[in-house]
User: What shape does this take?
Amino acid sequence: MEQLSSIEAWRNYANDQRAFGHAVALVPTMGALHDGHASLFRAARASGDVVIATIFVNPRQFGSAADLKSYPRTPHEDAVVAKENGVDCLVEPSLEEMWPDYPNSTSTTVSVHGIGDSLEGADRPGHFDGVASVVAKLFAVTGPCHAYFGEKDFQQLAVVRQMVRDLALPVEIIGCPIVRDPDGLAISSRNGQLSANGREQALAISRALRAVDAPATPSTLRRRMREVLEDAHVQTAYVEIVQPTTFVVAHDGDEGEFRALIAGIVEGVRLIDNAPVTLSSREA
Ligand code: PAF
Assistant: This one.
């Protein structure tokens, strides 16, 4: 596995691969790699593309300096996970090259309005501007045919898809299923910050999503999810049901395939999860 850090070497690597006739896949990450990331690497590998993975803890998508500082960093373990799961080239760009003017506000920002304004976007102002801006830059340097993102960050995936549509970026976005531990907890770099009790409490989030697997109205489904979370005393930032591509909130009377999303806070750790739901205008 090749390991690069400068934008010049990374761009040259991608150009060379295309010149050899290979399609390039990009898997953007912030490191602290776990089985969720490994599943993205394996999916990209299975497509037959040359796989470039990036690790960049993007300061522009963090709300507070404390959150940025406490974000886990495991560079040695990350290189092993990337190599074992089929990454051809691992790029760890520097802050100086990614955001030369940081923390000045002179840098270019990509904002995806509408989808990026609600839920995570409302609770974490500026978060999706940071995500869209960095992903646009990762695309600009890599020039991938395909880019892989996990469905765990379902709103992020929708924001990236909207950006690609609006700017006609020549890349296909591939969303990959959420990877869960055997107890149901969606795998996240933040799970390691939970105590054993906290982890037990956090399981209510995936349990709440399993409680809405039969068609019903959005009011009923929201109430069912809230009941499970309240029983476990999980503090919630939101419990919502949205149209999966536009993120328009579901109303009673809507029917068809929607997405239920939960953000819970356990021991001060913000955890998100989501699942498909079927809406019916009549109760089951
Ligand atoms: O999902 C992530 O890890 C990040 O938001 C991403 C897409 C790598 C952008 O920094």
